[in-house]
Design goal:
It is a single chain. Helix content is 23%, strand content 32%. It has 386 residues and is α/β, with parallel strands linked by helices. The protein has 2 domains: 92 residues, no CATH class; 280 residues, TIM Barrel (Alpha-Beta Barrel), CATH 3.20.20. The strands form 6 sheets. It has an 8-stranded parallel barrel. A 5-stranded mixed sheet has the order 16-1-17-24-20, with no helix packed on it. Strands 12-11-13 form a 3-stranded antiparallel sheet, with no helix packed on it. The radius of gyration is 23 Å and the shape is elongated.
Length: 386
């Protein structure tokens, strides 16, 4: 029989600052409109001012449209921004093809009585290609008439004089402050995000939102450090791989950015765009309750309680993480066990350090409400033995 050393991760919620004064939008980035997505769009509408809906992308296959459930969006009574994704770093796109896709989505939305607030182009353009991007945006504006044109923007663009040219072609922008550049640095850094936001606010002449992450991503690297794959949409638990790293965004870190923006909003900052709208089946997205709590300005604490429960006479114990709260909790990077527990083994991304009597992880998991995770076992002697 086994002893379970239970680490209870409690995410107590207490009311902190009042709700933020700015608006919150959400990206609906799913390419399949399942019944679960339809329900979530309806249930979460009260949280968001608008939905920014992926309607298609242009890639090597040409124009690929998403079969959006427009009647489902109509029932939310929320305006919609149509988002077209352009993969790659160069805006080598036929503006006529892109315009046709956008006009078709616009017509379908309006036919379903959905209010189209504007169009957004999502393109991680290389800094050297920004002049060409400005030309593409100008061509699109000439072909499609909407109340508002927006783009997603990268912090790196601030270093280019061509950014002014790009922003002159749109009415608004969304600054993306989450990215996989160096996996060791994670997916999101609150301090860096705030520096980027302030820098962008000093140069943009247009209203802008900030895209904040509510998801995790899995990065696989080669031996020389090169990024081989980036996986953000899988719904199933992957097999643990020593070459892979889960980059998880701690809700508490994102809440810090929201508080700072609430206390001292930058000039022309108008709100947040959350990436992405979470589904219960989406293993890498926050739970919707967590996103609600962060948007509402609720403070999150994470006291850790250790339980050692004797089961039988053996000296070994499994180490289990458990979240019994109703919001997501990021597991600790380091979990200490009694010094006499000198033998053990970690699993699920944790490593056991016998010299320090602790489990360490470079990328601890985000535990959803009610979730538990076994991270290894230990063998203890003396008074620490079970």
């Amino acid at each position: 029989m086994r002893l379970f050393l239970i680490l209870m991760l409690a995410a107590g919620i207490a009311r902190a600052a009042p709700p933020t004064a700015f608006d919150h939008d959400a990206y609906v980035w799913q390419r399949r409109w399942t019944p679960e997505l339809v329900r979530t769009v309806a249930d979460a509408a009260e949280v968001f001012t608008a939905y920014r809906v992926l309607v298609g992308e242009l890639d090597a296959r040409g124009a690929v449209a998403v079969a959006v459930d427009w009647p489902a969006l109509a029932t939310t009574k929320r305006p919609v921004v149509l988002v077209l994704r352009l993969p790659g770093a160069s805006p080598r796109v036929d503006p006529g093809t892109a315009a046709n896709l956008l006009r078709d989505a616009q017509a379908a939305a309006r036919s379903a009585q959905v209010v189209v607030a504007g169009i957004e182009i999502d393109h991680d353009c290389a800094r050297a290609q920004l002049p060409a991007y400005a030309t593409l945006l100008r061509a699109l504006r000439e072909r499609v008439e909407v109340p508002m044109w927006s783009i997603t923007a990268l912090p790196d663009w601030v270093q280019s004089d061509a950014l002014v040219e790009v922003l002159a072609e749109v009415d608004a922008s969304v600054l993306q402050v989450h990215a996989v550049a160096q996996p060791g640095a994670g997916l999101f850094d609150a301090a860096q995000a705030l520096r980027w936001i302030r820098a962008y606010a000093r140069v943009t002449p247009r209203p802008f939102r900030v895209a904040l992450p509510a998801y995790a991503t899995r990065v696989t690297q080669a031996a020389d450090g090169r990024i081989l794959t980036i996986e953000s949409d899988a719904a199933t638990m992957p097999v643990f791989d020593e070459t892979a790293r889960e980059l998880v965004v701690d809700p508490r870190r994102v809440a810090v950015v929201l508080r700072r923006l609430h206390e001292a909003p930058p000039q022309r900052f108008v709100g947040i765009a959350w990436f992405r709208l979470p589904l219960a089946s989406d293993r890498r997205a926050w739970s919707i309750d967590t996103l609600r709590a962060v948007v509402a300005g609720q403070a999150m604490d994470r006291p850790v309680r250790v339980e050692r429960v004797r089961i039988g006479d053996g000296p070994s114990a499994d180490v289990v993480l458990r979240n019994e709260q109703r919001v997501d909790v990021l597991a600790p990077h380091a979990i200490t066990v009694p010094a006499s527990c000198g033998t053990g083994e970690g699993v699920a991304g944790y490593r056991f350090d016998a010299a320090r009597a602790r489990f360490d992880s470079n990328a601890p998991p985000l535990l959803k409400p009610g979730a538990s995770r076994t991270i290894g076992w230990v063998h203890c002697q003396g008074s620490s033995a079970p």
